Amino acid sequence: MFDMMKMMGKMKEVQARIKEAQDNLVNVKAHGESGAGMVKATVNGKKQLISVEIDPTLMKVEDKIILQDLIVAAVNKASEEAEIVAKEELRKSTDGLIPNIPGMDLSNFMG
Fold first, then answer.
1. Could you state a single Gene Ontology molecular function term (predicted)?
2. Per residue in 72-92, pLDDT tens?
């Protein structure tokens, strides 16, 4: 028999764990690089840029456009990695609480 009160209790627990996972995404770091490592970007699990490292050899005025492109590429790679890591953190935080239902996407809970 279906126990509605038990299910409601589980949903509250799931909501609490999802909220905790969302709050902790600030502490998750993902990295991306471009130009064979000459430009490196780090973002957090909320896809906020934390840092950019640039190889000093790229600091020439004539290389400005290349440098801009490499920064964009590195940040985009780091953001893609952050999305993967964030989804994994959410999966871990709700493991055992939510059944693995094919097609059920909880990524919209990541905020």
1. DNA binding
2. 999 999 999 998 988 888 788
Q: How many CA atoms lie within 13 A of 57 on its CB side?
A: 5
Full domain range(s) for residue 59: 27-95
User: Are residues 62 and 108 in contact, defined by beta-carbon separation less than 8 angstroms?
Assistant: no
d(CA 67, CA 73): 10
Whether residue 54 is contained in a domain is answered as yes
Closest of 79, 78, 89 to residue 31, by C-alpha: 78
Residue 36 clears pLDDT 80, i.e. is over it:
yes
CATH of the domain at 64: 3.30.1310.10
User: Which pTM does this prediction carry?
Assistant: 0.63
